[in-house]
Please model this.
Amino acid sequence: MLSVRDLTVSLGPETAPVDIVAGVSFELGKGEILGLVGESGCGKSMTSLAVMGLLPQPGPRIRAGRVLLEGCDVTQLQPWQRVVAGHGRMAMIFQEPMTSLNPVRRIGDQIAEAVRVHDRLSGPPAIDRARELLEQVRMPDPAMQLSAYPHQLSGGQRQRVMIAIALACRPQVLIADEPTTALDVTIQVQVLGLLRELCNRLDMAMLFITHDMGVIAQLADRVSVMYAGRIVETAGVEALFGRPRHHYTRGLMDCMPSRNSGARRLPTIAGQPPAPGTVGAGCVFASRCAAVRETCRTAAPPRAEVSQGHDVLCAFPLDGGEPR
Amino acid sequence: MNGNAVLDVRDLKVSFSVRRAGRKYQVRAVDGVSLSLAEGEVLGIVGESGCGKTTVGRSIVGLVRPDSGTISFKGTDMTGASLRDMRLNIRMVFQDPYASLNPRRTIGDSVAEAGDINGFFTSRAGRSAAIAATLTAVGLDPSFAARYPYELSGGQRQRAGIARTILPSPSIVIADEPVSALDVSVQAQVLNLMMDLREQLRLSMLFISHDLGVIGQISNRVAVMYMGRIVEQAATRTVLDDPRHPYTRSLVAAIPKPDPSKRILGAIETGEPPSLFKRPRGCAYAPRCPIASDRCQVDVPELRSAGTDGRAIACHNV
Model:
């Protein structure tokens, strides 16, 4: 459905580019949820914006790599060019729905706007379709809510409206960038349940971006862990949480309070991620890795498949024991 | 009242007047909260946005004026007491380390501010030594004293915020979402620091957070708030392992767990809190509650003791 190959996003001059996303590759199948997890600044949002064709201009640019939607290269197309070319069935939702919605327009009109673009409908049929979309996202009392303004809705309801707008293009791929981070947990679990249901029912693939390992574990089918612009580990969700192979993945899991209930101290990962542009020849995680060896500092680690569908960017993966 | 409580809050009520569509409304943010904090204890207050947990913290340090209720520190009522004395004893750590440090003052000046105002320092050398000692205590190099907030990472800023809080040796620290703005790996470092300081300085702490995982890590006891009231209060393990109030149950169930066997398989609809402008007549949780009865629609349940383990619950039906 969606295939991203060696995507590299860079800042700065052509002659001395700084890679903020460096050679990211992943595949996304029908109805599948791929979780992309990492801490602030690891490049997960930049990856999603590059895939959508929404990188801010001027600013970061795609320096190398391809984004294939159903086999068609859409890397260099603007979003409107994708719609015209018939590759517009990809949508995105963001963390803060209030900044994505127009505060002075009724939500019915805002959903109908997307319907107009994608279904070439207008007037009452467009509004009917908008109501139908609100029903799909399980908005209580959808006919009434069409005439509401964003400020009259709760945070969870606003995110449902954003999802309704995203569904207007009948997406094959939905990109969700921290869509529940601003919500309370009892609301978050409802939005996550809705997204899972929509993926199942509409056979829609989803790239779900978050910093929260708990959310990833409960929602994703497969998980990619990002660090300093690179995907350091990809695996099925059970394999990743059951037997993490990268030292960073392991560290992230260990420092979650909910994995340590009752422990007197939480394990931590020493130090901080490297600033973009300061990455040297070796492994990006070498400066913080507890199991670092001499070669890690000088040679880039290989990407190795440690088991079926489980690959890791590390020369000395956990539990694998011996260096290969 | 608890005999050895360092802080005792009785029946605290706070409301704000809000203007909406040309009309003035009184919104009750805190509606009769009582709690006490023993020496060396960490009491966690957990709840979702708008439940009043931050307002409770801000009332205790005098940033918000309560409508009614008493707040006593070591047995003396502080309502109307001098803020200056109180603020050396009861100090606050804020959520956003970007917003709570003055960008135009050095870290050292911000850390020393309470000492400067209260004449703690008799010499420049003494002041510098106190700053250096405090920065060291929070795990920052003393050279940070000369830096400005923009030069620090989020975790370092929150450490500076904590240094500013502990400089005058307070008895009580009110920490309002102190780790919510931090990445998980940094969050763990700051939580460890707070646990260490609590032990070394024998601090009592009110730890306010929306995150039950974080609360579970640091607190001895937990109070769960919903719509301005405490709905359940007990020892931390009791609340997390065996929640009884239906709201606490849904809150515990909703915590994202790093366990793929607990996967979300489809839609879950459990409703949303009512607007603070339209508080239900009876129990505020009744509209969402799976076990609500007729009585819950009209009669507000009081917090009452339930069981022998110090648990208290505000519910008619458990």
